[in-house]
Amino acid sequence: MLFILFFFMSCSFFKAEAFFSEKIKKVRNSSQGNVFFNQISGNSFYQKPNLKAENLKSAKLENRRILIDQAMKQFDSVCVSFKQKNSDLSFIEGRFVLKKPFFKAQYLPPAAPIVLETSGGMIVRSNPLTEEVDSFEIDKTPLYPLLQKESLFKKAVVTKIYNKYDQTGQYIFVEVRPINDPEGGRVTLLFKKVNCKLKLTGWMIRDAQERLTIVTFSKVESLSPQKK
After folding, report:
1. N or C: which terminal CB in the chain sees fewer CB atoms within 10 Å?
2. 40 phi, psi to nearest 5 deg
3. Is 216 exposed, middle or buried (0-12, 13-18, 19+ CB in 10 A)?
């Protein structure tokens, strides 16, 4: 008699255990259960990843990259008049021609008639008055990403992208540095948002000695043949 009673009690116990195990499994797999079991295990800040927000962020970043590449493509062949602010707070004006990968810039009087020009993988700086000549490897200068026809994101390391607003509108700053010389300085490209597109309006170059040069475009003329 005791054996039969013990047998039925054991069966009831195992049925109850199976029932509650199944209930616990269902609760654990629910969203509320996830929170509960993580709370009792010490992880009270558990949250499921917000895939929708991550996808939107990724899509926004990709769209911005496309706009930046399109703006740089419009800059493949141009003649630009510019104003330059140097690290000593002096201002000079000049003009450059860019036909990627060719680049030639010259400062206007009263500044010294310094000429910067690409030649065989080098950037040559010369002063006709003093006959001084210096040269630097292009791929180790902050100008390198600007002289490439390929996507900016393939030819440089993009270290920062951020927005700024003023009374004239929205600006996007893109900080890049050469792939081959991470310590050689960096350039920050300045884009203005115009009618859902980006327009390159200048750049800031910070060299390896942390000297800052700011270049602002005053006039940009396309040298590309006009499509009819």
Report:
1. C
2. -75, -20
3. middle
Half-sphere exposure of 62 (CA within 13 A, CB side): 6
For 49, the enclosing helix (H) or strand (E) is: none
Task: Name residue, tokens 């200068």.
Answer: 141
Question: Which CATH superfamily, name and number, covers 59-222?
Answer: Lipoprotein localisation LolA/LolB/LppX (2.50.20.10)
Residue type at 171? Y
Tell me the domain boundaries of the chain: 10-40, 59-222
Number of H helices, E strands in the chain: 4, 11
Q: How far apart are the C-alpha atoms of 129 and 160, rounded to whole Å?
A: 40
Per-residue pLDDT tens over the stretch 17-71: 454 455 445 544 544 444 433 443 444 444 555 655 555 566 777 888 889 999 9
Percent of the chain with pLDDT over 70: 71
Distance CA 97, CA 93 (A): 14
Q: What integer pLDDT is reported at residue 34 of this predicted model?
A: 47
Measured CA to CA, the distance from residue 171 to residue 138 in angstroms comes to 28
Compute the chain's Rg from CA coordinates: 31
Rounded-to-integer distance, Cα 132 and Cα 180, Å: 27
At residue 138, the pLDDT reads 85
